[in-house]
Design a protein that fits this description.
By secondary structure, the chain is an all-alpha fold. The protein has a domain of 59 residues. α2 packs antiparallel against α3. The longest helix has 30 residues. It starts with a helix and ends with a helix.
Length: 110
């Protein structure tokens, strides 16, 4: 019996690791992949230092650092952006308390 067949009939069940891709998740995965590829390339350069000029090695390090800084800034922006979601008016989340309604008529004069 496969793991998928066990959850096929269960209402509301989600298969772990399988979800709809969202832009934040895709950006994070892409930035991580770019930094990983750059790290491997930099390691290859350092393993064969005699084949590369000092200036080329310096530029490889600078480019790798630029990828890392860019990924860190992207992660930071996504983190701060997701924690500052302001919900108001008709866009309130389900289950949140309802906002006070304006008072009309005789109640407003009291």
């Amino acid at each position: 019996m496969s793991p998928l067949s066990r959850t096929a009939g269960v209402a509301g069940s989600k298969i772990e690791g399988v979800s709809q891709p969202d832009p934040t998740n895709l950006k994070t995965k892409l930035a991580t992949a770019i930094v990983a590829i750059s790290s491997i390339h930099l390691l290859q350069i350092f393993m064969r230092t005699e084949s590369f000029a000092e200036r080329d090695m310096l530029w490889a390090v600078v480019i790798h650092l630029a990828f890392m800084v860019g990924a860190l800034v992207l992660f930071w922006m996504d983190h701060t952006g997701s924690s500052k979601q302001v919900v108001s008016g008709p866009q309130m989340r389900a289950g949140s308390p309802t906002p006070p309604q304006p008072v009309h008529g005789a109640e407003a004069d009291a």
